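Q: Please design a sequence for this.
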């Protein structure tokens, strides 16, 4: 199987997709390769090279071959820069497709490449990770084109809100399969030792209330709303600390530089998110659009950080019984953070029975079953001359 990535850069969709590939390879029943359209992307105020990306390193470390068309360009949400492809790029793509039985497209953006004339026809499974297809630039039209051409045989939706949004946008319902996001429960778990070590590393007292915001610096994350809530909360909680991590969450980002104090910590991209969540009391999300099944809420919850989120995508159903849903109001969000800290023991007591629902094992098994079906039922009909 061949997976197409728009590029390797920070984001939950790439983490989930890469984890699925690792799980499928671990199972030994499928062979996977990856083709990345870009070798470097510029977004969230940073240049992100694929060889520095933790997903790239995990995949190559597991023996998965990754090649790239070598593009280097700025990306914005939903837009594949420079849609015209060169002859050499199409030749490289044709060679990669020729050796695959099924194509996995990480989100719909790579379909701009797969829709080019003259490429080998292979069944395509598109992995969808957002709840706002209308805000994905030309990508939605690329998905419609690939479906009309008969190449897309299934769409994996990470959330009910994803399925509903794409169905409302005209994508045939029989193509939309919901496989909710899952995480590694051995990695993301309560860890008192990691909790204390993380706090010591930042000079945060063991008993101080801590709110973590794990997100890339992007408009959909509504960082200004988070900052307004953080100022309100810190004024109310003199012992409180706020941790911000993700691409663009550094002092190099001029929009955030003034926010840094001894109680606001900008950590950028972290490789040890399990320790960050274990060291926190609350995991916050203030997104205004686009989210489907936010990975930060699941990972944070599994580490005993109480999720407090705006009502976007499947967030409300994910945290139901385990956290708090708020309106997009800074005062209400700040109040909810304080309530989550005060009643943290109540919320975390509900989690042990819920852990299986958020399991990486469950997610990978569901993906494997779908891909087995696709391979069996549709592989030959898109490979002329091989079916008879």
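A: Design:
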């Amino acid at each position: 199987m061949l997976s197409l990535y728009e590029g390797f850069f920070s984001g939950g969709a790439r983490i989930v997709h890469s984890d699925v590939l690792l799980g499928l390879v671990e199972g030994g029943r499928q062979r996977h390769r990856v083709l990345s359209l870009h070798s470097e992307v510029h977004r969230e105020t940073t240049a992100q090279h694929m060889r520095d990306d933790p997903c790239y390193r995990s995949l190559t470390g597991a023996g998965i071959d990754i090649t790239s068309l070598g593009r280097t360009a700025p990306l914005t949400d939903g837009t594949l820069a420079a849609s015209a492809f060169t002859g050499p790029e199409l030749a490289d793509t044709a060679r990669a497709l020729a050796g695959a039985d099924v194509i996995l497209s990480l989100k719909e953006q790579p379909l701009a490449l797969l829709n080019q004339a003259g490429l080998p026809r292979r069944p395509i499974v598109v992995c969808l990770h957002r709840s706002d297809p209308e805000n994905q630039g030309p990508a939605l039209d690329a998905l419609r084109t690939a479906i009309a051409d008969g190449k897309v045989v299934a769409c994996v939706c990470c959330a009910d809100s994803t399925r509903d949004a794409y169905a409302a946008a005209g994508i045939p319902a029989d193509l939309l399969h919901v496989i909710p996001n899952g995480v590694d429960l051995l990695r993301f778990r309560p860890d008192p030792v990691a909790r204390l070590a993380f706090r010591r590393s930042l000079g945060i007292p063991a008993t101080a209330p801590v709110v973590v915001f794990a997100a890339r610096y992007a408009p959909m994350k509504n960082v200004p709303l988070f900052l307004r809530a953080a100022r309100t909360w810190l004024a109310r909680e003199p012992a409180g600390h706020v941790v911000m991590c993700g691409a663009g969450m550094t002092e190099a980002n001029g929009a955030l530089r003034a926010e840094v104090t001894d109680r606001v910590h900008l950590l950028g991209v972290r490789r040890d998110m399990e320790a960050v969540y274990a060291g926190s009391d609350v995991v916050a999300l203030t997104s205004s659009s686009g989210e489907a099944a936010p990975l930060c809420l699941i990972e944070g919850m599994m580490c005993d950080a109480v999720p407090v989120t705006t009502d976007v995508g499947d967030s409300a159903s994910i945290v139901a019984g385990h956290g708090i849903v708020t309106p997009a109001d800074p005062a209400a969000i700040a109040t909810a953070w304080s309530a989550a800290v005060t009643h943290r023991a109540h919320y975390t007591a509900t989690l042990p029975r819920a852990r299986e629902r958020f399991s990486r094992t469950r997610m990978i098994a569901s993906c494997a079953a779908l891909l087995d079906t696709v391979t069996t039922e549709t592989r030959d009909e898109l490979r002329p001359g091989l079916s008879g």
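Q: Thanks. Anything notable?
A: The domain at 2-182+360-382 is CATH 3.40.50.2000 (Rossmann fold). The chain has 15 helices and 14 strands.
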